[in-house]
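Researcher: We're teaching a course module on how sequence relates to structure. For the next exercise, students receive a sequence and then see the predicted structure as tokens, so they can try to spot secondary structure elements on their own. Here is the exercise chain.
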Amino acid sequence: MDSIYIVIVLVLLALAAMDLVVGVANDAVNFLNSSIGSKVAPMWIILTVASVGVIIGAMFSTGMMEIARSGVFYPEKFTFASIMMLFLAVMITDVILLDVFNTFGLPTSTTVSLVFELLGAAVAVSLFTIWQNNEAVDLSQYINTARALKIISGIFISVIISFVVGSVVMYLSRLIFSFNYKKSFQYLGAIWGGIALTAIAYFAILKGLKSTTLISNEALTYLTEHTGTILMYTFVGMTVLMAVLQHLFKVRILTIIILSGTAALALSFAGNDLVNFIGVFMAGKSSFDVASVYVAQGGDINQLYMSSLNDAVVVDWRYLFGAGVIMVLALWFSKKAKSVTKTEVNLSRQGEGVEQFSSTKASRSLVRNALNISKFINYITPVKVKTFIESRFKPLEQKQSGDPSFDLIRASVNLTVAAMLISLGTSLKLPLSTTYVTFMVAMGSALADRAWGRESAVYRITGVLTVISGWFLTAFVAFSVAALVAFLLMYGGIYAIIGLIILVIALLVQFTIIHKKREAKEELKTSADVISNESDLISNCSVEMEEAISTMVRIYRSTIDGVFKEDRKLLSHLQKEAEAIYLKYKNRRHYEVVPTLKRIKDASIESEQFYIQIIDYFYEISKALKAMTEASFTYINDNHEGFSTEQMDDLNKLSEAVIDVSNEFVKMLQQWDYSGLDQLKPKRQLISDLYALATRNQIKRAKSQASGTRNSILYLSLLNETKIIAMQSSNLMKSQRRLVRKTQITKD
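Model: And here is the predicted structure for the students to work with:
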């Protein structure tokens, strides 16, 4: 047999390993978001429970492998050579597509991506075969289009039903338990636990074990025929067990419910979605094994059609266990998995915080319509009913930094409703996506729980719409890209294989770089330090001020040098650095100031006022620095002429005066001694005089045509931004001095 097919099998194996990593990174959100969002247990416990579910589910996943072999196309119509190219095209596309979603932290359906990749690749290979053989046949003889249409219908069903049911169940649950649920849970907790664990157990059996070959058909038939009886006994048994644990052993049974649901969803994920990652490789290996035997018996490989892929699947348990281990490692160590999980948790969290998405026309329109409907309902609702509802939805005391994104009641609702809906869909043979159901249930429960207040609704809805649109885009992109890749492989052969493998590696590296940059930007939105009292406030401001002034002085000086030397690369780097600092203080100003002040209980109004001023001055300095670096880079990037010696002399004198004063500020911060601040008045006056002199000289140069228009605009802009930096830095130090003095007086 041609060695190229051995290479293809090895490439499929490598791509399958990559696909396991990127696939888990995306699907981990399905079973982790409730546990992580509610902080039901330490992270290592959550991941351990999920890992056990993944390993067990992987060992029970054999029965789902046929989807990659004969799910959307008829394998008997394809030769061995064409089927191997088809499988290779699917794996290449799947790795790239899922990594794109992971890079931007967006959950998608790995099932939908696989099905439409298989469909797109199969269509391309079929059309290429028909064209090459000059056949007059119908494409439907190659493709099972009914399966694809069923998947699409499942998208609409799962998205709408999951959101509505999640909203209704969460609303009723909150009416029953309220946010202060500890008292009512003493009486109703056991029943709640019985219902939840029964639903989770039914889900694990029906969804997780239904397709396995490790349980006999007789056992599965018995489970199916006696489902009602089993559920009744399970409910009674679980309710009694929860009552005993809660009242006799004082166990927090909500923890058991949530961790059980996490394990069940992890088991289902591995049991049903493992095919999305290694199913194509296993089908390719089976095809290779059949072809090897066929060639050894003297057959012509070009005449071998792959009808054998319609046979029952037998998978070596070692492959399943190995795949489970890779998934567990990805679960523990993948940073992109954390990004996808963070997206869903942020969209469903209770209370204010940094919003990942901006508002759009669609989200604003939806919020306005929802407000109008809410006003109408509020108008027709009796006062007593409104009073009761408001009492049940009254939130607890202001959340502290590090608190859960939502409480255990909501987490248990998310897991229970998702388990019930997926179980129901499976029993009705509906192609529900685990991702779609879990995500939309979480969004529906967040809406019903009033997590989407007027402070955040437009941003959260934009996020939900973005994720949903990504789901529908998945099908189109998966089909199109897989078709293109398959055509290139069929047409280009070995050269296309080499080129596409290089492309995959390059794209994965590039996506990793993009993800790191995106993570860095996200980190800028939140402060690394937690300020809990007035002393922390002063210490935090002093340390940050020293670091910020030193950094800004470096960027300021380097920008002037970059313009003089016409160093485009340096200015490009400085522009990005200044942009990052600007975004940091912009987000500090928008998202951290008020929550920080709410956390501090013992600070005086004057101290808090000075703190607000300090953040404002930081923001103004960063904005001036951003404007300076942007204008400088644009000017040099457009290949305009640099500054003259006379211009640089004036600018250097001014910049050196500014830097000299800034260095004095840093010394004061280091020594915690601001007594010399008033003694800097002559130096600050020198800055003012040098600014006026440089401005007059530039006006003379412009009028005498010694300096061009764009040159003059940039130069005057740099002078103006320098003046702003000097003025705001001085204001910054005055506010810091007042903050320190006010605190010292208060302590004395």
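Model: If you want an answer key for the exercise: Residues 3-523 form one domain. The CA atoms of residues 194 and 239 lie 4 Å apart.
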